[in-house]
Specification:
The chain is α/β, with parallel strands linked by helices and 602 residues long. The model has no long low-confidence stretch (mean pLDDT 94). The chain is built from 18 helices and 24 strands. The structure holds fructose -6-phosphate.
């Protein structure tokens, strides 16, 4: 996970590195560091186990006037959170500095081998084998780019690596199954794990392909691209469409608040993209995928919930059978022929999803990626891609990307079912009309959530655990509510189909245990609620008029729910509840402990 950045500019590099690292912090925030090339041809390495803001303070007195540097923000895997383990790491000479994102799976064997040959290691991290391997390759007479290629050929796992040579200021980068982009501007070149980190500084960028080695010449000539030591054409340049405004939180106290609030607008944008073509079978037809008999959704976490919601839409609308695959468990999944594999991933870089896609894909079972990152590794490896148009999401907890995934997947379902004759055209058209209500439904839910949830949340801060219950289409949304609460509040939160309560989880309920019920007006829910009430549990109903949080269709400004879609609007009060409780407990809602946004390790 980790974020990496590099700058080779005509002016000072440190501000660009720090700005980029602050934007990459969502990828990990256990430590941060930079290496700057000093005017005298040395390296100034600054590292901290605090956040990027502290790194910025440490660099304020920087008088190196360095124009070239590399930086890193870490999500710890190998080795604890210490300054010694923070990147950049160096070779024995101290002249080569390296930042790495990914996992070197054979690091232990490489390290033993390198130590035997006399290399001295300064940290416990897997990444440190990389500068030493490059050092050796250079001792065998290779230039920096070839030495980086040779070192990479010894690695197993996934990596995006940037190397800085203090001697001549050369910067070389390489990647394998890990994201890295190169942006150019009149001020110089910038490399980053994510285009957002350098947005505003570059107008276009190129995404490194697996195996690419790119060398930035200190004199600013065209970067040199190679693979296996041979020159190759540069990857296609793409325009940078991310704006600084999208990355700023404006007047909001945190990114999560902004991203929750953006959901009606995101829904509007996603539907504006999709709805005009659905009656003609777009976007399904333009994906040029073969017809299917079943679908499998594959994803992790919140994206898995979005996938399950879509699988259920396919089922409700046309009886399409489906399988939901937890990406990290894909090895034990067997799919029938003619299954459309739909991979949901906000980042498009989730290692579990990438591995699952490799395992599940066959000629008869093509992979469709539904992602908010259309240039990501997942998008590049899938047979077809449908972008989600949520805009950059900075808060580690997924909010608006969930809504965008559900609506994008729903649009696709309608188009595919219409185009393959499984849904009559009039029903498709009626469903399209239903979807037009969704932005206002979400806005209504947001107004209700803002009014009712903070007071309720304030009374729940002492609870050490929470139950989330629903029936039918609400079950997956209850699961999403519980996940959000867990990751932000650090309290346990379990979700169950309400009928399961009496088969075990009811034992968890004691006096004042909060039980959040998505009350979708299923008559049997009343019985389940009574079972909780009888044990002293504190029931909080999210439902229509008269509920504790009347956020579902039909509440004060009555926009009717879209029954076949499921209670998408319920996700808003669930997100607000998780955020309010976390804030009440004093937690950082944008950067919950132990987590990162782009999970590039399995
Ligand atoms: C929860 C959350 C995670 C991600 C999961 C998959 O708020 O953000 O559960 O949904 O790590 O990530 P992506 O969607 O990038 O594949």
């Amino acid at each position: 996970m980790c974020g990496i950045i590099a700058a080779r500019l005509s002016g000072a590099a440190a501000p660009a590195l720090v700005e980029g690292l602050a934007r990459l912090e969502y990828r990990g925030y256990d430590s941060a560091g930079v290496a700057l090339r000093t005017g005298a041809g040395g390296l100034r390495v600054v590292r901290t186990i605090e956040r990027v803001a502290q790194l910025e303070r440490l660099l304020r007195d920087d008088d190196t006037l360095a124009t070239t540097g590399i930086g890193h923000t870490r999500w710890a895997t190998h080795g604890g959170v210490t300054e010694r383990n923070a990147h950049p790491h160096r070779d024995c000479s101290g002249e080569l500095a390296v930042v790495h994102n990914g996992i070197v799976e054979n690091a232990a064997a490489l390290r033993a081998e390198l130590e035997e040959r006399g290399h001295r290691f300064a940290s416990e991290v897997d990444s440190e084998v990389i500068p030493h391997l490059i050092e050796e390759a250079r001792q065998h007479g290779l230039g920096l780019a070839d030495a980086v290629g040779a070192a990479a050929s010894r690695l197993e796992g996934a990596w995006a690596v940037v190397v800085l040579d203090a001697e001549d200021g050369r910067v070389v980068a390489t990647a394998h199954r890990s994201p890295l982009v190169l942006g150019r501007s009149i001020d110089g070149d910038l490399l980053a794990s994510d285009i957002g980190a350098i947005a505003g500084r570059v107008e276009s960028f190129r995404a490194l392909r697996s195996g690419d080695v790119v060398e930035l010449d200190p004199l600013g000539s065209e970067p040199r691209w190679t693979q296996g030591g041979r020159a190759v054409a540069a990857p296609l340049a793409m325009p940078c469409t991310v704006s600084n405004e999208q990355l700023d939180r404006g007047d909001y106290p945190d990114h999560m608040a902004k991203e929750i609030d953006e959901q009606p607008a995101v829904a509007e944008r996603v539907l504006a993209e999709l709805l005009p073509g659905i009656a003609q079978g777009e976007p399904w037809r333009s994906l040029a995928l073969p017809d299917f008999r079943r679908i499998a959704v594959v994803a992790c976490g919140t994206s898995l919930h979005a996938g399950i919601a879509i699988a259920e839409v396919f089922g409700r609308l046309a009886g399409i059978p489906s399988t939901a695959v937890v990406a990290s468990e894909a090895a034990s999944t067997y799919l029938e022929e003619q299954t459309l594999v739909m991979a949901f991933s906000q980042s498009g870089e989730t290692a579990d999803v990438l591995r699952a896609v490799e395992m599940l894909r066959t000629p008869g079972n093509p992979v469709l990626a539904i992602t908010n990152a259309p240039h990501s590794t997942l998008a590049r490896t899938a047979d077809a891609v449908l972008p989600c148009h949520a805009g950059p999401e900075i808060g580690v907890a997924a909010t608006k990307t969930f809504t965008a995934q559900v609506l994008t997947g729903t649009g696709l379902a309608l188009a595919a079912l219409g185009a393959t004759g499984r849904m009559p055209r009039e029903r498709v058209l009626a469903a399209v009309e239903d979807l037009r209500r969704v932005p206002e439904l979400l806005a209504q839910s947001l107004r209700v959530a803002d009014r009712f949830v903070p007071g309720i949340a304030g009374g729940l801060l002492d609870a050490h655990g929470f139950l989330f219950l629903a029936r039918g289409a609400g079950v997956v949304y209850a699961a999403e509510g519980a996940l959000k609460l867990k990751e932000l509040s650090y309290r346990w939160a379990e979700s169950y189909p309400a009928g399961e309560l009496k088969h075990g989880p009811l034992a968890l309920v004691e006096a004042q245990t909060p039980v959040i019920v998505l009350d979708g007006a299923d008559a049997r829910l009343a019985g389940n609620i009574a079972e909780v009430g009888a044990r002293g549990g504190r029931v909080i109903r999210i439902g229509g008029l008269g509920a504790d949080i009347p956020a579902l269709g039909g509440s004060p400004a009555p926009i009717d729910a879209v029954d076949w879609l499921g209670p998408l609007e319920s996700v808003v009060p669930l997100q607000v509840l998780a955020r309010e409780i976390a804030l009440g407990l004093g937690h950082d809602v944008d950067k919950p402990r132990n987590l990162a946004k782009s999970v590039t390790v399995e």
